[in-house]
Design brief:
Layout (H helix, E strand, L loop, with lengths): L2 H10 L4 E3 L7 H9 L4 E4 L5 H13 L5 E6 L14 H8 L4 E6 L5 H9 L4 E3 L18 H16 L10 H7 L7 H4 L13 H7 L21 H4 L2
Parallel strand pairs: 1-2, 2-3, 3-4, 4-5
Helix pairs in contact: 2-3, 5-6
Protein backbone atom coordinates (compact mmCIF):
# COMPACT_ATOMS: atom_id res chain seq x y z
CA UNK A 1 0.00 0.00 0.00
CA UNK A 2 1.19 3.54 -0.72
CA UNK A 3 -0.32 7.00 -0.55
CA UNK A 4 -1.35 6.97 -4.21
CA UNK A 5 -3.25 3.75 -3.55
CA UNK A 6 -5.05 5.42 -0.65
CA UNK A 7 -6.15 8.24 -2.94
CA UNK A 8 -7.32 5.70 -5.51
CA UNK A 9 -9.42 3.88 -2.92
CA UNK A 10 -10.89 7.16 -1.67
CA UNK A 11 -11.91 8.04 -5.22
CA UNK A 12 -13.71 4.69 -5.44
CA UNK A 13 -15.65 5.64 -2.29
CA UNK A 14 -14.99 2.30 -0.64
CA UNK A 15 -16.85 1.79 2.68
CA UNK A 16 -13.60 1.14 4.56
CA UNK A 17 -9.87 0.62 3.94
CA UNK A 18 -7.84 -2.34 5.19
CA UNK A 19 -4.26 -1.61 6.27
CA UNK A 20 -2.40 -4.91 6.18
CA UNK A 21 0.11 -6.02 8.79
CA UNK A 22 3.00 -5.22 6.46
CA UNK A 23 1.99 -1.54 6.52
CA UNK A 24 1.04 -1.28 10.19
CA UNK A 25 4.36 0.41 10.99
CA UNK A 26 4.33 2.61 7.86
CA UNK A 27 3.54 5.68 9.93
CA UNK A 28 3.47 8.24 7.08
CA UNK A 29 0.86 6.05 5.38
CA UNK A 30 -1.17 5.75 8.59
CA UNK A 31 -1.06 9.51 9.15
CA UNK A 32 -2.52 10.08 5.68
CA UNK A 33 -5.10 7.31 6.11
CA UNK A 34 -6.16 8.73 9.48
CA UNK A 35 -6.76 12.14 7.93
CA UNK A 36 -9.09 10.81 5.23
CA UNK A 37 -12.00 10.12 7.61
CA UNK A 38 -12.65 6.75 6.02
CA UNK A 39 -13.14 3.79 8.43
CA UNK A 40 -9.92 1.78 8.78
CA UNK A 41 -9.26 -1.85 9.66
CA UNK A 42 -5.64 -2.22 10.76
CA UNK A 43 -3.98 -5.62 11.17
CA UNK A 44 -1.19 -5.95 13.73
CA UNK A 45 0.76 -9.02 12.62
CA UNK A 46 4.57 -8.79 12.79
CA UNK A 47 4.29 -5.83 15.19
CA UNK A 48 5.17 -5.25 18.84
CA UNK A 49 2.87 -3.59 21.35
CA UNK A 50 4.88 -0.36 21.13
CA UNK A 51 3.99 -0.18 17.44
CA UNK A 52 0.32 -0.77 18.22
CA UNK A 53 0.52 2.05 20.76
CA UNK A 54 1.94 4.29 18.04
CA UNK A 55 -0.91 3.37 15.67
CA UNK A 56 -3.46 4.39 18.31
CA UNK A 57 -1.52 7.59 19.00
CA UNK A 58 -1.64 8.52 15.29
CA UNK A 59 -5.39 7.92 15.17
CA UNK A 60 -5.95 9.96 18.33
CA UNK A 61 -3.86 12.85 17.04
CA UNK A 62 -5.98 12.88 13.86
CA UNK A 63 -9.19 12.79 15.89
CA UNK A 64 -10.12 9.58 14.09
CA UNK A 65 -12.17 7.05 16.05
CA UNK A 66 -13.41 5.17 12.98
CA UNK A 67 -10.89 2.34 13.09
CA UNK A 68 -10.37 -1.11 14.49
CA UNK A 69 -7.30 -3.15 15.40
CA UNK A 70 -7.07 -6.75 14.24
CA UNK A 71 -5.12 -9.30 16.24
CA UNK A 72 -3.16 -11.18 13.60
CA UNK A 73 -0.22 -13.56 13.24
CA UNK A 74 1.45 -13.35 9.84
CA UNK A 75 2.23 -17.03 9.38
CA UNK A 76 0.65 -19.14 6.62
CA UNK A 77 -0.81 -21.36 7.96
CA UNK A 78 -0.54 -20.33 11.61
CA UNK A 79 0.12 -23.14 14.07
CA UNK A 80 -2.44 -23.21 16.93
CA UNK A 81 0.31 -22.57 19.48
CA UNK A 82 1.20 -19.35 17.64
CA UNK A 83 -2.35 -18.01 17.32
CA UNK A 84 -2.06 -16.24 20.69
CA UNK A 85 -5.80 -15.55 20.93
CA UNK A 86 -5.46 -14.23 24.46
CA UNK A 87 -3.99 -11.12 22.89
CA UNK A 88 -7.57 -10.18 21.93
CA UNK A 89 -8.73 -9.44 25.51
CA UNK A 90 -5.34 -7.84 26.17
CA UNK A 91 -5.95 -5.37 23.33
CA UNK A 92 -9.51 -4.82 24.52
CA UNK A 93 -8.26 -3.86 27.98
CA UNK A 94 -5.45 -1.67 26.67
CA UNK A 95 -7.64 0.15 24.14
CA UNK A 96 -11.18 0.04 25.58
CA UNK A 97 -12.57 2.53 23.04
CA UNK A 98 -11.28 0.61 19.99
CA UNK A 99 -13.09 -2.28 18.30
CA UNK A 100 -10.82 -5.33 18.33
CA UNK A 101 -11.04 -7.95 15.58
CA UNK A 102 -9.23 -11.06 14.41
CA UNK A 103 -7.51 -11.79 11.13
CA UNK A 104 -6.83 -15.52 11.11
CA UNK A 105 -4.59 -17.70 8.96
CA UNK A 106 -4.96 -20.99 10.82
CA UNK A 107 -6.48 -24.17 9.42
CA UNK A 108 -10.20 -24.67 9.98
CA UNK A 109 -12.72 -22.46 11.77
CA UNK A 110 -12.74 -23.55 15.41
CA UNK A 111 -9.97 -21.18 16.49
CA UNK A 112 -11.72 -18.29 14.76
CA UNK A 113 -14.91 -19.12 16.67
CA UNK A 114 -12.87 -18.94 19.87
CA UNK A 115 -11.59 -15.52 18.79
CA UNK A 116 -15.19 -14.30 18.61
CA UNK A 117 -15.92 -15.64 22.10
CA UNK A 118 -12.79 -13.90 23.37
CA UNK A 119 -14.11 -10.57 22.12
CA UNK A 120 -13.23 -10.17 18.43
CA UNK A 121 -16.01 -8.22 16.73
CA UNK A 122 -14.62 -8.12 13.19
CA UNK A 123 -13.48 -11.34 11.53
CA UNK A 124 -11.27 -11.64 8.46
CA UNK A 125 -10.46 -14.97 6.83
CA UNK A 126 -9.06 -15.63 3.37
CA UNK A 127 -11.40 -17.41 0.94
CA UNK A 128 -10.68 -19.96 -1.78
CA UNK A 129 -12.58 -22.40 -3.95
CA UNK A 130 -9.80 -24.98 -3.64
CA UNK A 131 -7.18 -25.27 -0.90
CA UNK A 132 -4.89 -27.18 -3.25
CA UNK A 133 -4.40 -24.35 -5.71
CA UNK A 134 -0.93 -22.89 -6.12
CA UNK A 135 -0.01 -20.10 -3.72
CA UNK A 136 0.73 -19.74 -0.02
CA UNK A 137 -2.71 -18.37 0.90
CA UNK A 138 -4.91 -21.18 -0.42
CA UNK A 139 -4.01 -23.76 2.22
CA UNK A 140 -5.02 -21.50 5.11
CA UNK A 141 -8.06 -20.07 3.32
CA UNK A 142 -11.61 -21.23 3.90
CA UNK A 143 -13.51 -23.16 1.25
CA UNK A 144 -17.23 -22.39 0.81
CA UNK A 145 -18.50 -25.02 3.28
CA UNK A 146 -16.09 -23.84 5.94
CA UNK A 147 -17.04 -20.20 5.49
CA UNK A 148 -20.74 -21.07 5.69
CA UNK A 149 -20.07 -23.05 8.88
CA UNK A 150 -18.22 -20.11 10.45
CA UNK A 151 -20.92 -17.59 9.56
CA UNK A 152 -23.64 -19.88 10.90
CA UNK A 153 -21.76 -20.44 14.16
CA UNK A 154 -21.32 -16.72 14.74
CA UNK A 155 -25.02 -16.30 13.96
CA UNK A 156 -25.85 -18.86 16.66
CA UNK A 157 -23.66 -17.01 19.15
CA UNK A 158 -25.69 -13.89 18.42
CA UNK A 159 -29.07 -15.61 18.61
CA UNK A 160 -28.18 -17.15 21.97
CA UNK A 161 -26.96 -13.74 23.15
CA UNK A 162 -23.57 -15.31 23.82
CA UNK A 163 -21.82 -12.17 22.61
CA UNK A 164 -23.41 -9.93 25.26
CA UNK A 165 -20.50 -10.98 27.47
CA UNK A 166 -17.35 -9.14 26.27
CA UNK A 167 -15.06 -12.14 26.70
CA UNK A 168 -15.15 -15.68 28.10
CA UNK A 169 -12.45 -17.52 30.01
CA UNK A 170 -10.56 -20.50 28.59
CA UNK A 171 -12.61 -23.22 30.27
CA UNK A 172 -15.88 -21.62 29.19
CA UNK A 173 -14.72 -21.41 25.58
CA UNK A 174 -13.57 -25.02 25.45
CA UNK A 175 -16.92 -26.10 26.93
CA UNK A 176 -18.95 -23.92 24.53
CA UNK A 177 -17.12 -25.26 21.47
CA UNK A 178 -17.51 -28.82 22.69
CA UNK A 179 -13.98 -29.97 22.01
CA UNK A 180 -14.27 -29.28 18.27
CA UNK A 181 -10.51 -28.94 17.90
CA UNK A 182 -7.92 -30.79 19.95
CA UNK A 183 -5.49 -27.90 19.39
CA UNK A 184 -7.83 -25.22 20.73
CA UNK A 185 -6.22 -25.10 24.18
CA UNK A 186 -2.86 -24.23 22.60
CA UNK A 187 -4.44 -21.36 20.66
CA UNK A 188 -5.92 -19.79 23.80
CA UNK A 189 -3.00 -20.35 26.15
CA UNK A 190 -1.68 -17.46 28.23
CA UNK A 191 0.29 -14.81 26.33
CA UNK A 192 2.97 -12.81 28.11
CA UNK A 193 3.45 -10.00 25.60
CA UNK A 194 2.91 -9.01 21.99
CA UNK A 195 6.07 -9.69 20.04
CA UNK A 196 7.22 -10.65 16.56
CA UNK A 197 7.08 -14.47 16.46
CA UNK A 198 9.66 -16.75 14.93
CA UNK A 199 6.97 -18.09 12.60
CA UNK A 200 6.38 -14.57 11.24
CA UNK A 201 9.95 -13.88 10.17
CA UNK A 202 9.61 -15.38 6.69
CA UNK A 203 6.62 -13.15 5.98
CA UNK A 204 8.29 -10.16 7.58
CA UNK A 205 11.26 -10.46 5.23
CA UNK A 206 8.86 -10.21 2.29
CA UNK A 207 6.22 -7.79 3.53
CA UNK A 208 7.46 -6.05 6.67
CA UNK A 209 8.37 -2.37 6.53
CA UNK A 210 11.53 -1.40 8.41
CA UNK A 211 12.00 1.82 6.47
CA UNK A 212 9.87 4.00 4.21
CA UNK A 213 11.73 4.64 0.97
CA UNK A 214 12.86 8.17 0.22
CA UNK A 215 15.24 7.24 -2.59
CA UNK A 216 16.52 4.19 -4.48
CA UNK A 217 19.17 2.06 -2.81
CA UNK A 218 22.24 0.82 -4.63
CA UNK A 219 22.16 -2.74 -5.90
CA UNK A 220 23.87 -5.40 -3.88
CA UNK A 221 22.35 -4.80 -0.44
CA UNK A 222 22.14 -8.18 1.31
CA UNK A 223 18.49 -8.86 2.20
CA UNK A 224 19.52 -10.83 5.31
CA UNK A 225 21.56 -7.96 6.75
CA UNK A 226 20.12 -4.86 8.42
CA UNK A 227 20.07 -1.59 6.47
CA UNK A 228 22.58 0.71 8.12
CA UNK A 229 23.11 4.45 8.00
CA UNK A 230 26.07 3.96 5.65
CA UNK A 231 23.79 2.30 3.10
CA UNK A 232 21.19 5.04 3.36
CA UNK A 233 23.49 8.05 3.07
CA UNK A 234 24.16 9.32 -0.49
Amino acid sequence: MDERSLDFLADLKVPFIKIGSGDANNFPLLIKAASMKIPLIISTGMQTMSTVDKIVEIMNQAGNDMYSLMHCVSSYPTAPSDCNLRMIPTLMQRFPNVIIGYSGHELGVCITKAAVLLGARIIERHFTLNKHQKGSDHLCSLEPKELISLVQSIGKFKSKQSLHIPTYNVNEIIEMLGGEDEHLAAAIAEVSEKEILQSELACRRKLGKSIVAARNLDKGVDEDKPITENVLMP
